[in-house]
Structure formats: structure tokens, C-alpha cells
Amino acid sequence: MATDTAGKPATRPGTAHGRPKRRRSPLGVFGSLSHLALLVWAILIIGPILWTFLASFKTNAEIFGDPITLPASLGWDSWGRAWEKAHIGQYLLNTVFVVVCSTAATMLLGSMAAYVLARYTFPGNRAIYFLFVSGMTFPVFLALVPLFFVVKNLGLIDTHLGVILVYTAYSLPFTVFFLSAFFKTLPTSVAEAAMMDGCSHTRTFFQIMVPMARPGLISITIFNILGQWNQYLLPIVLLTGNVEDKWLITQGVANISTNAGYEADWPGMFAALSMSIIPVMIVYIIFQRQIQSGLTSGAVK
Amino acid sequence: MRHGRYPFIIGFLAAPVLLYVVFVVSPYLQAFYISLTDWKGVSANPRFIGLENFSRLLDDEVFWAAVRHHGVLLLAMPLVTIVIALFFSFLLNLGGGQRGGRMTGIGGSQVYRVIFFLPQVLAVAIVGVLFQTIYRPDGSGVINGLLGKIGIEPVGWLIEPGLALWSIIGVVVWQAVGFYVVLFSAGMSSIPSDVFEAAALDGAGRFTLFFKITLPLLWDTMQVAWVYLGIAAFDCFALVQVLSVDRGGPDNSTTVLPMEIWRTAFNFSKFGYASAMGVALFFMTITFAALTLRVTRRERIEF
């Protein structure tokens, strides 16, 4: 392909529009094979998800029959059962509530700490910064046992407030790390000018620095929302008591799947599964660009 | 300017630091102490027993099974994920050859990237439930149903001790590939296109382009990817918990340390022993990260 293009420089100026015409020849067998590989992987991704949606419309008998058939009729009653009887609606609302609160708290506290640590020098600055950053390297399983008792002793076990505080605390290391790097890159002149005009430190932060840091704040907000929405370990440790009405969605769905064997409402289980996937998928399709860049910038520390 | 500086600093740091110390720092520190006790949750004052938990760990078959599984995960899972992701990201970014003087991906690459990344936004626990039915051991499982069509007997994906761990690794790879495609794509797009153009002018083919140019220039990104996947290999809790039979079974053939920690602590109330496992996990993770960074260190290629 390379030599091909180089050999025909005359066609180059027109390639912007002549593209489809030339595409086949330089790719050849390699091209078809690579298309095939990509297509197969795409099917492997979409297949299971699509199958879950379809299974929610099937009957129990159909589910235990040939898996590669379409449901005989499209009834929504399994969705109603999942929403009402399996409390998926409740779990979704609980999760929205917890994630909204804890992401908001993470962003507020995280950006405040990051800002101070990035732009003010004071004794102990580095120590506090490293205290936060070291939290990224520790596996959460190490803290699991004492964490349970800390939350319990504060009387916050089996409460949403406990979950919110723990989510926030465990999201702080990365948030502080990421945002303090970001605040450092912002120009100092604007903040200084504001202070000259009599703006207080606090006002400078909220009215000048936060708006300037918007791109970084958005990336890390997405990162935190997804991470907290998908959390499974912390809810099953912190909401273990007899508080099923407080469960979060991942916990609820996992529990339905273990109990489905006894109650034998498989369509309901698939409806529950679909309901937990659909909101995330809609959000993903709308914001896919930001989510991809947000999550990958979150990965490259 | 300096007026109100310290009240401001303290005001801004107090809440985050307090929250962080209470819920993160203090549990981590306590964990190291609890690992030296025989605490079972009933007594208020756990008895200090020194390193006894750790010496018990050395004789614990399940612990070693878990460590072995981490070893398998650590080698197989990142390798497979990175190879697939590299292949796809090469196709999606450079596989289309040169067009109008620029390197392009093959047709529809944007759509593929959106689809491939999708599993990344789904909760691991939800993915586990999803694959439970896909891996079902009889003809009603999706994979076995398909195999049945071409006359292959149903396979016990999750109930066959020799196969169960690999089935779980398959799910991890399924979920992770899209993320690393995007990560490698970002790495590839930061390579200046004149590097490829120059190589193409010199007559470099697709394979040379991939192995001699793309791969060395992507080394930093791959190192990050390996560390990330390695840390993920130490943290397969949700999938094992939801997907495996008997939580880590059959016969502990899929168990991992986080699973054992959770079970030992919250099913059997052996908090001291669970914390000792946590400490072991901590040292394994740290050692892995340090080793990887050290071994893969290379001269940085500036461009």
C-alpha cells in the first residue's frame, strides 16, 4: 500500500474525494481479513448484550431451550416484574442518589485539596500530597476489614451516608493526583490579577480557577461517576445487613442471579440485567467521546 | 495577598484530609496491625500473635492456589489483551494505509472503537451475571448452544476445574480489550506522521511498519498497559464472586486472594487471618509494579 501511494503522486491531490475508488486495491486480502477480525470482535461484544435483551422477552421454557432463537412474542411483563418485585427500580434510584452525592462530594473536596496542594506552598504540603497519592497504590482489599469496623463504629454501616463517605474518600487519591497536576498547568496571572482586585482566596478558587479547570474537572467527574456506579465490593461490604431496600444496582442484580435458580423467574432476571445495562449504554453512546478520553487520561498517570 | 492565607489553606484541606484519614489511611494502618492478631470479631481486645498468621498462610493450600491463579492471570491476561488490542488499534489507526499523505485507519474505525469500548462502562458484576448465562454448561448456554449447532457436546465452561479459570480470563479480556485499543490509539496518534511517511517512502511494508516502528515507539504506553493489567490481575474479585461456582470453585480452581480475604473476613469472621492475606496481597502488588517498571525500563525515544 505504501509503495502504491508513493508511486502515483499524481492522484494524490484528488484523493480526498477519490477515496472510495482506490480503497479496495491497496488493501487486498489483508484488508478483508482485518475487516473480518474487527467484525468478529464487534459481534462478540454486541452479541451477549443483545442476547440478554432478547432473553428478557422469552418465557422460561424458551430460555432453557435453544439459546439461538427469537422470543415468540414481545411481552413487557417480565420488565414490570423486575421493576416492582425484584426492586430494580429502587436499586437504580438508590444508586443514582449515592453516586450523585458521592461524585459531587469527591469533586468538591478533591478539587479544593488539589488546588491548595498545587498552588500554595506551606509546611507539610508535600507530605499531605504524598499521603493522598500513596492511596492509589494500596489494594482496597487490604483495608477491607478495618474499614468495615470504622464505618460500623461510626454507626454508618447499612446507611447510604456511610457508602457515600467511603466512595468519596476512596476516590480522593486519584482525583487529587489528577487535578493538582491540572491546576499546576493553569496560568497564574489570572488568579493573581483577581487577588489584586481584592478577590478572596476562596472566591478566586470558585469563580476563576474552577471555570478555567473545566476540561480537567469534566474528565475526572466522568471517571468517578463510572467508577462509583460500577462499584460492587464496597456495597456488599457496607450494606450487608437486613437492608435490601438500600441496596445498589450491582449488588441487586448479582443477588437476583444467585436467587433466580430458586424463584425460577429467568425472564425477570434478564429484564433486571437489561435495565441495569440500558442507562449506562445510553449515557455512553451520548458521551462516548468524553468517556473514552476521560477514562484513558485517567489511566495514564 | 498573604492575608488570610493560612485560614484558607486549612479551611480547604480540613474536610478532605479528615475524610481521607478516617476512611482510607487509618484502615490501611490498622490492617497491618490486625494481621498480627488472632482477632475474630468477638473480643474487644484481639490477642497479639506476631507472625503466626503468616506462617499459617505458608501451609494454607487455598492461599497457594490463589497465588498460583494470580500467576496465571498475571501472565496470560495482559499478554492476550495487549496482543489483541495492539492488533486492533494498528488496524484502526494505520491499517488503511496512506491516504492524502496521512496514515489512516481502515473504514469504519470510529464505529468499531465505540463498540469495542462499550464493555468498559458496564459494571464488572453485571458483566459477570451476563456471562453466567453465556457459559451455562448445558445446551441452553449461548456458547454451548452454538457449539451444539455444529455437533459439539456441551462444555462445562465454569464447572470444569481445568477450564473455569480460563473462562473467567476470557471475560476479563472481553471487557478490557476496548479500553486498551483506545489507549494504544492515543499512543499511536501521538507518533508524528512523518515517521511513517518516511518509512513508507523507504518501502516499508505493513509488518515492518508495525514491528519496527509502531511497537518501539509505543513502548511507554505498553508499559503503562502492562502495569494496569497486572494490577487488575490482582483484583478479580467481582467476576470470581459472581461467575464462579461456590465462590472460587469448583474446588478452589478459580479462587483469588481478594475472594479469600472477603470470605475469610465476612463469612468466617477470621479478621486477623484475612488481614494477613491482605498484607500478602499488598506486597505482591507492590513488588509486581516495581518489577515491571524496572524490567521494562528503556531509553526513552524522543520525537
Tell me what you see in this structure.
Helices cover 77% and strands 0% of the residues of chain A. Chain A has 301 residues and is mostly helical. Chain B has 303 residues and is mainly alpha-helical. In chain B, a hairpin with a 2-residue loop joins β1 and β2. In chain B, α10 (219-233) packs antiparallel against α13 (271-295). The longest helix of chain B has 33 residues, at 61-93. The two termini of chain B are 42 Å apart. At the A-B interface, α1, α2, α5, α6 and α7 of A face α1, α3, β1, α4 and α5 of B.
List keywords for this structure.
heterodimer, A: 301 residues, mainly alpha, 14 helices, 77% helix, disordered N terminus, B: 303 residues, two-stranded antiparallel ribbon, 13 helices, 2 strands, 69% helix, globular
Topology:
The complex is a heterodimer of chains A (301) and B (303).
Chain A (H helix, E strand, L loop, with lengths): L1 H6 L7 H41 L4 H4 L13 H8 L3 H32 L5 H10 L5 H14 L6 H26 L2 H9 L4 H12 L1 H16 L3 H6 L10 H15 L2 H34 L2
Helix pairs in contact in A: 2-14, 4-14, 5-8, 5-11, 5-13, 6-8, 8-11, 9-10, 11-14, 13-14
Chain B lengths: L4 H30 L17 H7 L2 H33 L3 E3 L2 E3 L4 H13 L2 H11 L7 H8 L11 H29 L3 H9 L4 H12 L1 H15 L3 H7 L13 H10 L4 H25 L8
Antiparallel strand pairs in B: 1-2
Helix pairs in contact in B: 3-7, 3-10, 4-7, 5-11, 10-13, 12-13
Rounded mean pLDDT of chain B is: 87
Share of residues in strands of chain B: under 5%
> N-to-C SSE series of chain B?
HHHEEHHHHHHHHHH
* Radius of gyration of chain B, taken over Cα atoms and rounded to an integer in Å: 24 Å
List segments of chain B where confidence is low: pLDDT < 50 over at least 5 consecutive residues. Answer: none
Largest sheet of chain A: none
Low-pLDDT sequence parts of chain A: 1-25
Strand content of chain A: under 5%
Class by helix and strand content of chain A? mainly alpha
Query: Largest chain interface and its two residue counts?
Result: A-B, 108 and 109 residues
- Assembly type of the chains comes to heterodimer
Number of helices, where a helix is a run of at least 4 consecutive DSSP H or I residues of chain B? 13
User: Average pLDDT of chain A, to the nearest integer?
Assistant: 84
